Amino acid sequence: MSAAASALRVRVARKAQEAEGICSLELTSVDGAALPPFSAGSHVDVHLGGGVVRQYSLCNDPAETHRYLIAVLRDPASRGGSAAVHDAVKEGDELQISAPKNHFALAHEARHSLLLAGGIGVTPILCMAERLAVMGASFDLHYAARSRERAAFVQRIQGAAFADRAQFHFDDGPEAQRLDLAALLAQPQPGTHLYVCGPKGFMDAVLSSARAAGWGEQQLHWEFFSAGAEAAPRTGDEAFEVQLASSGRVITVAPDRTVTQALAEAGVEVLVSCEQGVCGTCLTRVLQGTPDHRDVYLTPEEQAANDQFTPCCSRAKSARLVLDL
Prior knowledge:
metal-binding; flavoprotein; globular; Ubiquitin-like (UB roll); oxidoreductase; Rossmann fold; FMN; FAD-bd_FR_type; six-stranded antiparallel beta sheet
């Protein structure tokens, strides 16, 4: 499906403050038609003008067809996305979004699900919890935030049928209620799947603790909102070449350009969205050469295979990469 074919026009039916620094947007179809279905863990690409496209998780009930609900944290280091949502988007505005996509789906064969949310990462995790509750599945939810005032949807969770399965952990609260990852993840069980979403530091801590405790990669599921320093240019980056397998054409990627930028300047377009190695939109097969992976989308095993990479931010360790383009 092309990007144009999957584009949707929606109206901001409601904008609300959910917590300190977090607002939500309720999006409905402009023509009143039912919106495409989605599953827990899905996100949509939201076009915010000026070429800015950001991914936001859907956090309403997947059974609802009349609306999508997203929540956005104001990021002091915003590259234009969160600032636009908080300052420019108003109730009644029309926006272009993509159809829902899901790179963070529930493993329905799981015997038990452990859901870990950090800050704004509660958006997909909450949707998962509500879906698992409807299914009658076994799960536990842990929600960590700096403070209660900065935690979105607390009342919604406390009023849910699964409230007894949810625990809150606030940085400014008593020591006894803080999240103890080492203890929580110490005993990985067969059939238990772990899902984590939130700020990169939180997610790195969760995933590194789980791997150190012996959790298998097939048990770990995550979704990053940004790539942090991984995707940033680095001192010492050097030029390299990419070759297009279809034509044999060779294009040089300068130290200050990304692969997608160099390709675009040469008239070769690759579909991109986040441009940080988060969403996987630009994922491209590598036929020869060794990538320098700087994404947070691929698993460690997928990166080690070196047969695909994200040209929006990743580079090359070898002098040339041959791409399936």
